[in-house]
Amino acid sequence: MANLSADFIGIKSPNPFWLASAPPTDKKYNVERAFEAGWGGVVWKTLGSEGPPVVNVNGPRYGAIWGADRRLLGLNNIELITDRPLEVNLQEIKEVKRKWRDRAMVISLMVPCDEDSWKDILHRIEDTEADGVELNFGCPHGMAERGMGSAVGQVPEYIEMVTRWVKKHSRMPCIVKLTPNITNILGPAEAAKRGGADAVSLINTINSITSVNLDSFSPEPMIDGKGTHGGYCGPAVKPIAMNMVAEIARSAETRGLPISGIGGITTWRDAAEFMALGAGNVQVCTAAMTYGFKIVQEMISGLSQYLDEKQLGLNDLVGRAVPNVTDWQYLNLNYVAKAHIDQDACIKCGRCYAACEDTSHQAISMSANRVFEVMDDECVACNLCVNVCPVDNCITMVPMAKGEVDPRTGTKVGDYANWTTHPNNPSVRAAE
Ligand SMILES: Cc1cc2nc3c(=O)[nH]c(=O)nc-3n(C[C@H](O)[C@H](O)[C@H](O)COP(=O)(O)O)c2cc1C
Ligand code: SF4
Ligand code: SF4
């Protein structure tokens, strides 16, 4: 079994799988059972300032999107930060950390945007012996209206300022949790780095309305006839999260800034993909809420087996895909592939034909007895047929060898050449 022990910004855990700040981590009862199941660490549900506890709605707080088999694809919530008294949370954090010394215990924080509030809460959490803090600059509902959460996370200057306060008033490692509700993730990530953050974590949830009730004409979840936008998470957000992680990992300004990857992680493979894109560890919420704490066991055994097969250490995986993430203009325009249909696997449903005929390049023929074949002289290798085919691996993309003639264009497959040197590029023509 590969060694999965992880050291993320000096915070050690037996594996890189942490539970993200959310209901799975909001009390001792949950966190202890999570640790028993094998989770390497937790980010405790976000704590706020001392005072009257936060008030949540007393009706449905979740909405969802499902696949055809009713598998949960996306979850939407309108929950706020912890609604339990600060003192109770602090006592429980202390008790759990004392009992589970080998697990990572990070405390998520969100308090008003003034130095005294941050100084005060940092002072309050000091004797919990927690391993670090995560600054929740991401919550998109409820707290943002009060000038916290994503209201801070959307303004790089505020991120930098608050991170500086935290570093000034605490010796703990500081992770800044970023909101995806922004046009360019690099602004907030750079601000966190400038403020002295030890790491960033992302993503928090995405502003969303998952459905509208067409009888009551209210967004759901519906509270007494009204709805509001909530935070979207789960498998549906994984592609958005991975792109943002990769952007931070490959940008010259933020390269090397440790990243905790979050967003739709459900299996060991999801986790490995985030890590290959530069995440030093991962955090999980929706998958644990959907399937329970024991899903971590599949993550541990799967990642371990994968690393063994590839003969890689955990740290070898981190960032391994980053050099292969590039801008469109550097893709090889001389790479040519063609779709190929495996006739033995084909169930003759015709979906590839409909897709290619109606919306792509009319490159699939259908015979009278429903044999579907790709016409290489029309196929542009767009991959649409692969993605609509219901049979896994029935249609594959086969690259052509260098020197072969592409029957569609009549030209030979050549060496690597990209848009920056392409004769159709106006800037190349202007330079000539
Ligand atoms: C019900 C619910 C409550 C959440 N509460 C918090 C919170 O208090 N603090 C926080 O930083 N993130 C919170 N999150 C966001 C998660 O920590 C995580 O960033 C997000 O759900 C994406 O991960 P996932 O796709 O694995 O769920 C919450 C998410 C859910 C579903
Ligand atoms: S790859 Fe695109 S163009 Fe080629 S057969 Fe499939 S859908 Fe048609
Ligand atoms: S979509 Fe797949 S299974 Fe259906 S006809 Fe095309 S190749 Fe065959």
From TrEMBL:
GO terms for cellular component: cytoplasm. Belongs to the dihydropyrimidine dehydrogenase family. Keywords: Iron, Iron-sulfur, Metal-binding, Oxidoreductase. One of its GO terms (molecular function) is dihydropyrimidine dehydrogenase (NAD+) activity. The keyword Iron-sulfur applies. Its EC number is 1.3.1.1. This is dihydrouracil dehydrogenase (NAD(+)). Gene3D superfamilies: 3.30.70.20, Aldolase class I. Residues 337-369, 370-400 form the 4Fe-4S ferredoxin-type domain. Heterotetramer of 2 PreA and 2 PreT subunits. It comes from the Bacteria. The keyword Protein biosynthesis does not apply. Involved in pyrimidine base degradation. Catalyzes physiologically the reduction of uracil to 5,6-dihydrouracil (DHU) by using NADH as a specific cosubstrate. It also catalyzes the reverse reaction and the reduction of thymine to 5,6-dihydrothymine (DHT). It holds the Pfam family Fer4_21. InterPro entries: 4Fe4S_Fe-S-bd, 4Fe4S_Fe_S_CS, Aldolase_TIM, Dihydroorotate_DH_cat.
